[in-house]
Amino acid sequence: MGNVPVAGAPADAHFLKRPLDVDLVYIDERGYPWSDVDNGDIGWGGAEMGKKPMGEVEHLVLLAVLRLGGGAFALDVLRELDREAGHVVSRGSLYKTMERLEAKGLLTWDVEDGSPERGGHPRRRFSVTEAGIKDLAEARARLMNMWDGVGGLLETDR
Asked: Whose CA, among 11, 77, 89, 138, lies 20 to 30 Å from 101?
């Protein structure tokens, strides 16, 4: 797979053409992939044109942290995702998602001293930022707008 140029992208950007697919993927400076239709040329509308909405796992992680209240530890978030969303996530995937959310300014963490039971190893307590709460509210509004009027179409007892 070689580099493929895409109009409007930085000269040093990396592009990959996926096998058996015509969509191009642009890997930005943070390592996040963007397709040829969401590389910033075509935005999602609103005040922040080009801003990519949260993915489902990012959305669920922020909601889990909020549900746990007062900050949450990663293991608690894993349990909450499994128990309440039926979504099993590995620790590695969770930490990568949390790193992305932190880079986007949607999640923050503080280091807490470790207990003797943990051998003194410090723990990270995660919290959703004001920007994260705002993005969740916007995502909820978008979804509610889309759900309006289709609820009856999804009834299973038809």
From this structure: 11
